Amino acid sequence: xxxVTGSTAGLASGNPLLGTWKLKSHVMxxxxxxxxxxxxxxxxxxxxxxxxxxxxxxxxxxxxxVPLDLALTDEEQVALHKTMFAYAGTYSxxxxxxxxxxxxxxxxxxxxxxxxxxxxxxxxxxxxxARAIDPTTGTEAQYVVVWEKVTSPR
Length: 154
Fold this sequence. Notes:
The protein has one domain (6-149): Beta Barrel (Lipocalin). The two termini are 31 Å apart. The chain has one helix at 74-82, and strands at 19-30, 35-36, 44-49, 54-60, 84-94, 97-105, 114-122, 125-133, 140-149. The longest helix is centred in the middle third of the chain and has 9 residues, at 74-82. Helices cover 6% and strands 49% of the residues. It is mainly beta.
């Protein structure tokens, strides 16, 4: 499959990732085999790939805290930050592999980096797998994130 990047991304034919995807699950497995769901059993989020070569992802834990006031306390800010992820940039796609070229992120360390992901499509389900450093422990882990295609209302 042809790589999709920047100005050539408008060539939508052959790009199976185009569209918006809703987050269904987010599972992390450590090097020791310990499995966890860092955003809970029912995370909330969206991932979008556009024909112009842009992408964005945002996700949160379900049941997040609701601050008591518009002016957040330090503890509330920390709790909200720890229960979300968000980033955007451009992307390139090959058969079974998508690379997110991060322009902006909730985690400043990702800005300007390439985040390589492996994907599998099964009907309207997109499974993305990656190995990355867990920001809470500093150790490498495998992430399996499942998304479901969002269909337009008729």
